Amino acid sequence: MSDTSGDTSGDTSGDAILAALMPVVDGLAATFGPSCEVVLHDYRRGDQSVVAVAGQVTGRRVGGALSEIGLSVLAKGEEATNDLNYLSRGPDGRVLKSSTMPLRDGAGHVFGALCVNIDVTALRDAADVLSALAGSAPVELPATTFTNDFEEVVDAVVRTEQLARGKSFDALTRAERLVLIRALDQRGVFTMRNAVPRVAERLGVSRSGLYADLAACRESPPDAE
């Protein structure tokens, strides 16, 4: 299992970077006003990665969990790059324009992220009205789970993958279950140490069984399943 809170060999550059960004978090949120939220993540803190929040758009708070977007950054590891100006829809239906910028320590390792979320619901609604008048269908936006509870994030990712397959977990063959577990692994779910018990519970398998399946997924190419 990957461990985001593991040994950093005494490298404290990440702490210095976070300290330098603290006033930036407040400054950005103040500049863009009440529709803007800025969130600073330290992935070394595991599933309680939020270390600073300014503004209230997604309800995040210090000590809260990373979202599916944060999981995807962890899944990409050192290949992670800035993801700018993407649109998503929160659980409450609000449309968000967001940017996620990975942070790297002195050794070049991704250890956190600076995220900006702007509520553009009113602008999006206006655009949908114009699209309807022009005879165009509005574009469906991906939903993102913003929560302070990491278990809710895991549940959302697992539920999405289940719905994509159209089967209950207990109806999956082992081959289908391996494909599902590989998909969850690729989405970064297992970068968090406490994700395995939650996923095992949702799939109705033992922890040891899930570890075995995960190892099998990582040892074999996708087309071998």
Describe the structure.
The chain has 225 residues and is α+β, with helices and mostly antiparallel strands. The chain has helices spanning 13-32, 68-76, 121-133, 150-165, 174-186, 195-203, 207-219, and strands at residues 36-42, 50-54, 83-89, 95-104, 110-119. Helix 5 (174-186) crosses helix 7 (207-219). Mean pLDDT is 82; it is low at 1-9.
Calculate the terminal CA-CA distance, rounded to whole Å: 21 Å
The helix-strand sequence is HEEHEEEHHHHH
For the sheet with most strands, the description reads: 5 strands, antiparallel
| Outline | globular
What level of helicity do the residues show? 40-55%
Strand segment count: 5
Number of helices: 7
Query: Residue-averaged pLDDT, rounded?
Result: 82
- Low-pLDDT stretches: 1-9
Kindly estimate the percentage of residues that lie in beta strands according to DSSP. 15-25%
What is the CA-atom radius of gyration, in angstroms?
19 Å
Alpha-beta classification: alpha+beta
Order of strands across the main sheet: 2-1-5-4-3
Please name the defining characteristics of this protein:
17% strand, 7 helices, 5-stranded antiparallel β-sheet, single chain, 41% helix, globular, alpha+beta
Task: Write a brief caption for the model.
It contains 7 helices and 5 strands.
Which helices and strands occur, and which strands form pairs?
Blueprint: H1 13-32, E1 36-42, E2 50-54, H2 68-76, E3 83-89, E4 95-104, E5 110-119, H3 121-133, H4 150-165, H5 174-186, H6 195-203, H7 207-219
Antiparallel strand pairs: 1-2, 1-5, 3-4, 4-5
Helix pairs in contact: 4-6, 5-7, 6-7
